[in-house]
Amino acid sequence: MSLIGWYKSRIKLDMMQKYGSNIEMHPNFELLKKAIEIVAQKHSGRTQLYVVDALGRKEKCDIALATPDFSRGIGIKIDRNTGELYFLYDKYGVASNIAKKLSGEVLQHYTAIALINAMKAYGYSVREDASHKSDAIMLIGEV
């Protein structure tokens, strides 16, 4: 049966009272958007504002990505009250490991970008290097 599932992540945005109605202005949403753009580019995909179920029905999201391997898309919705981040996708009839892998990559890049920003705020010189053939992200820095 085709059904778009909601999968809770470990990410929770703060200050939702300030940004809840305009999530795109939240500073952490910018980090999330950048992480999704990186994953979309890496997999020759695109960003969009919806996911599609197996029957072709669209579900709006705060942001989403679609790739040739998972064309229905993986969306992200943020709870406006709690700040909890959910991944949305329909795994009916496709390999759900692709969706899990893409979701994991988004989380990995989001975490790396947030860490880089935090370290820069403390005076470190750091950058992300995802150019290796593995799925790992290396943070390169100097004190």
Layout of helices and strands, plus pairs?
Layout: E1 5-12, H1 16-19, H2 27-42, E2 46-52, E3 58-67, E4 70-78, E5 84-89, H3 96-121, E6 125-129, E7 138-142
Antiparallel strand pairs: 1-5, 2-3, 3-4, 4-5, 6-7
Structural summary, described in words:
The structure is a single chain. The radius of gyration is 16 Å and the shape is globular. It has 3 helices and 7 strands; from the N terminus they run βααββββαββ. The chain has 143 residues and is α+β, with helices and mostly antiparallel strands. The model has no long low-confidence stretch (mean pLDDT 85). β4 (70-78) and β5 form a beta hairpin. Helix content is 32%, strand content 35%. The chain has one domain.
Number of helices: 3
Radius of gyration: 16 Å
Q: How many β-strands, per DSSP?
A: 7
How many structural domains does the protein architecture include?
Answer: 1
Mean pLDDT over all positions: 85
Strand order of the biggest β-sheet: 1-5-4-3-2
Overall outline:
globular
End-to-end separation in angstroms reads 54 Å
Q: What are the low-pLDDT stretches, counting only 5+ consecutive residues below 50?
A: none
Task: Provide the β-strand percentage band.
Answer: 25-35%
